[in-house]
Q: What sequence folds into this?
């Protein structure tokens, strides 16, 4: 019992030293808060897939009541803004190439006559495919306008699609991205802090001193890992507060569960960071390895594109990615209000990752030097 | 005489820098292997395209009118209908992510239609709002299309009133594949990575260790030093560019409709701006950790988020739009996508090169000032 207390006291002393070393440096203090702050603002305002305004060009060669009526329906959706009125089809290329219009609607001269004769009246719509996601969404909107227009002409009663979106009633992409940031933004720095922790001491030559202290490698590891985990969770808290109060995205889940998840997730990230630290020869390598890892981890997390859209092999690889489970966990607790049983599946891989990487790095500390 | 001395010193320095770069494998990993990983991930792994999304169909009313209304869903290439017996069952499927949406035809659909206004309920999982928004548009477009198609063919009982048919064409990306715009955009991202991130880190390290000051006392002039530092990364950037172009063409069948010369020209102009940005950052911070964070925040993140790489700048609020115009990557992103997908627009290339020269001069002046000031 006494030995246990002594061990814990030793670890706490190291933790205290690590936290002080981090916080006492004013440059570090800025770096611990600034990036998370700026990035959550950036993601909150800039990361949007919501197509709210589609600037479009019109070439109306029909000049009829029918064509005006059709265009009025496009304008009536509130999404399409008529930006340019063209006079010849040669101008379509200019309007699209320059990016002033996302699409160009051209109505042929015989539009009204064809409709009056009960025939099909083709309307040509050209989309700018340089961002095919936006173009696809715009095409979808045009399609539904045309469908409902036709049904009315047919005398068929219109079918209204009444939409109800769970967990995100206005289908705001900010709701999709920001809660995921609670896990993502802190990962970058916790990984880096953990990776630098030992690499820095090694580069400055103080790691040898640490090794001759009574601390065992496992104690050193825990002493280095705990501050990194705490700082990671603190950053998550910062992003959580911004998400909740600045952007006003309501949180439906229980805070304790969210934090339980965050501790699990950050623990697994720190474990990976410590392994990098043990492998790297100096700070620069530690940073580069971290960066090398962080890009694929972010891309394969389901943060921006759904994991289901990935090929099989990559889907399997995502099981080794703590962020995949971190993002899932935070999103489900935050937006869905999931309970512990709903997200239990997310904890297991995180736990496995932490319990492999932590002992591995403790072993590496020893054997790397020997 | 002095020009030959310049050459000798420059060659010696470049050789030293190149060796230093080649020795440390972690640099090459980020400079050459990370781009390959990114190309493969963006090309194969990331897709925004909704294809055959499973949609649960709950038919509380099984009249022919109701079946007619939803039959268009089966015909859509974006949607894949799954018949489900009850709402509770569909609910569970949506909750576990087995289906992406529920289309529910209410029990009084036939009566509603007789009254002239029918409603169909669409329930989406908003956690993935991008997919959900796309699905909403596709379901809306698919609803009731079959009935129309029948009248178009001139079913005798219904007097035809004529209908609008949509002839839809997507320029530059006919099939609407997101890889086609992600991979060209990746060129900008990789140039930023090599230029700003890698360079700032490496030179900050020299500051931190004091080796740069040691170099200053040698006959080497600052300009030679800068050129020698930058040269190996220019080569790495060039290799990355070639890899991107080849991968785009060979692996992902992205068309390269513009001239290769224009792609090379604009990319190099942007790479130089990135490198100068990296130099500037390292000069300001003189500390590896701070430099890496600065490079991420001021170069890499904006290049990813604000340049129109994934997020269309047409959708963002005005403030972000203004901020995006300050980021050099924005001006490169538009050009490189156009060069790959649309064709060579020399006016656009010239404008981009002019903007890049402006940035280059500005950064050069700033770097000059910070470096000199600190040494005095």
A:
């Amino acid at each position: 019992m006494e030995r246990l207390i002594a061990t814990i006291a030793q670890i706490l002393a190291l933790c205290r030293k690590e936290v002080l070393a981090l916080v006492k440096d004013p440059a570090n203090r800025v770096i611990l808060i600034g990036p998370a702050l700026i990035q959550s603002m950036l993601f909150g305002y800039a990361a949007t897939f919501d197509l709210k305004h589609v600037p479009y060009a019109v070439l109306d060669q029909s000049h009829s009541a029918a064509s005006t009526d059709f265009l009025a329906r496009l304008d009536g959706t509130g999404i399409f803004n008529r930006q340019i009125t063209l006079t010849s089809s040669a101008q379509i290329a200019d309007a699209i190439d320059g990016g002033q219009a996302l699409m160009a609607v051209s109505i042929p001269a015989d539009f009204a006559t064809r409709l009056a004769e009960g025939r099909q009246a083709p309307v040509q719509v050209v989309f700018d495919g340089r961002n095919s996601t936006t173009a696809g969404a715009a095409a979808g909107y045009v399609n539904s306008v045309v469908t409902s227009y036709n049904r009315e002409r047919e005398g068929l009663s219109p079918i209204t699609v009444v939409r109800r979106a769970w967990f995100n009633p206005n289908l705001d992409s900010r709701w999709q991205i920001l809660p995921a940031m609670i896990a993502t933004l802190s990962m970058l720095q916790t990984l880096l802090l953990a990776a630098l922790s030992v690499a820095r001491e090694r580069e400055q030559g103080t790691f040898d001193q640490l090794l001759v202290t009574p601390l065992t490698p496992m104690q050193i590891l825990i002493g280095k890992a705990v501050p990194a985990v705490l700082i990671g969770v603190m950053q998550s808290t910062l992003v959580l507060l911004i998400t909740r109060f600045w952007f006003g995205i309501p949180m439906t889940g229980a805070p304790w569960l969210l934090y339980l998840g965050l501790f699990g997730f950050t623990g697994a990230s720190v474990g990976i960071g410590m392994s990098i630290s043990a492998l790297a020869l100096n700070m620069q390598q530690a940073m580069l390895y971290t960066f090398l890892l962080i890009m694929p981890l972010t891309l394969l997390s389901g943060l921006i594109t759904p994991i289901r859209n990935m090929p099989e092999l990559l889907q399997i690889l995502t099981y080794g990615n703590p962020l995949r489970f971190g993002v899932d966990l935070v999103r489900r607790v935050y937006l869905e209000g999931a309970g512990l049983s709903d997200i239990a599946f997310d904890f297991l891989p995180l736990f496995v990752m932490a319990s492999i990487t932590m002992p591995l790095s403790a072993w590496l500390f020893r054997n790397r030097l020997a | 005489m002095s020009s030959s001395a310049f050459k000798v010193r420059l060659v010696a320095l470049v050789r030293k820098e190149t060796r230093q770069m080649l020795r440390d494998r972690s640099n090459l990993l980020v400079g050459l292997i990370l781009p390959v990983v990114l190309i493969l991930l963006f090309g194969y792994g990331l897709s925004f395209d909704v294809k055959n999304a499973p949609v649960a169909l709950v038919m509380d009313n099984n009249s022919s009118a109701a079946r007619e209304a939803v039959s268009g869903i089966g015909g859509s290439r974006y949607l894949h209908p799954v018949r489900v017996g009850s709402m509770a069952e569909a609910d569970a499927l949506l909750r576990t992510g087995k289906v992406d949406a529920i289309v529910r035809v209410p029990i009084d659909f036939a009566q509603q239609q007789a009254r002239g206004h029918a409603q169909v309920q669409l329930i989406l999982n908003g956690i993935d709002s991008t997919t959900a928004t796309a699905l909403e548009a596709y379901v809306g477009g698919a609803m009731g299309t079959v009935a129309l198609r029948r009248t178009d063919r001139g079913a005798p009982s219904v007097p035809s009133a004529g209908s609008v048919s949509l002839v839809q064409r997507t320029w530059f990306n006919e099939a609407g594949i997101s890889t086609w715009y992600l991979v060209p955009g990746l060129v900008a991202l990789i140039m930023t990575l090599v230029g700003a991130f890698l360079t700032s880190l490496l030179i900050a390290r020299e500051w931190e260790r004091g080796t740069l000051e040691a170099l200053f006392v040698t006959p080497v002039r600052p300009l030679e030093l800068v050129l020698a530092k930058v040269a190996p990364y220019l080569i790495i950037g060039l290799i990355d560019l070639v890899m991107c172009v080849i991968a785009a063409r060979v692996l992902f069948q992205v068309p390269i409709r513009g001239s290769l010369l224009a792609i090379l020209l604009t990319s190099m102009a942007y790479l130089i701006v990135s490198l100068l940005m990296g130099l500037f950052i390292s000069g300001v911070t003189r500390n590896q950790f701070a430099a890496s964070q600065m490079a991420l925040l001021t170069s890499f993140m904006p290049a990813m988020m604000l340049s129109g790489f994934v997020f269309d700048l047409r959708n963002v609020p005005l403030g972000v739009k203004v901020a995006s115009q300050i980021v050099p990557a924005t001006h490169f992103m538009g050009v490189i996508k156009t060069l790959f997908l649309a064709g060579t627009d020399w006016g656009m290339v010239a404008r981009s090169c002019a903007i890049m020269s402006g940035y280059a001069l500005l950064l050069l002046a700033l770097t000059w000032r910070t470096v000199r000031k600190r040494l005095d």
